[in-house]
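Quick one: co-fold with adenosine monophosphate.
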Amino acid sequence: MGLNVIMMGAPGAGKGTQAGRFARERGLPTISTGDMLREAIKEKNPVALEAQAGMDRGELVDDGTIIAIVRDRLSKPDTRPGFVLDGFPRTVEQARALDAIMDERGRGPLVVVDVVVPEQELVRRLGSRRICSRCGANADPGATACTKCGGEFVVRADDDAQVVLERLKVYERATRPVLEYYRARPTFRMVNGAQAPEQVAHDVDSAIDGAASSGAPGQVAGERRTSARVAE
Ligand code: AMP
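Sure, here it is.
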């Protein structure tokens, strides 16, 4: 049974960092829709270029485009042992589409982790976030150049103060309902993201391992929603 993880959290909650770290440690692919869109823009993909202006304003890209990207990515064989989704689903329609994809393909249950950080702290973090202008990696605290490729750090276009507020508003309006959509599942977990990064990492690992073992027993692929709750 694959380990299928969704890392949820507001912009600035650290979900991207945690998703990347967890995926690396477990040898799973990270599927970051934001990274995929930014790469597609660099490659001058016409659909992505059309989405760029909205992204720079902090708006969401339309569900149809994003769902098609994720559907295609999840058909790749490297996702069979599992995957870590970062930045998807961001709307209830995307969450429903993901359930349908998982059911169609007989994939195991989804473990959903919500990294929770108070709004004031999110605004503070987003205001000081820097990324590499060349490879897009988040800047490590204290580093003056990218530790991955040596590139220069810049402010992400959508981390401008006005845009940050818009992104948080969009999160509240469109993405918070996704948490309600998942909350009742036996594989839903919350983690306090306002702690030291190592503590967050530790809690994320235990949350995922605990949820995976509570969601999986007795399950047959495709029977996710009818499974009994175990060990709660
Ligand atoms: P991120 O790096 O995850 O913050 O994504 C950057 C931007 O890409 C977002 O602000 C959206 O404009 C767009 N985007 C990424 N993922 C999604 C998604 N699942 N649904 C809609 N838009 C998305």
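If it helps, The pocket of adenosine monophosphate is lined by residues 11, 33-34, 37, 55, 58-61, 66, 87-88, 90, 94, 158, 167 (CB under 6 Å).
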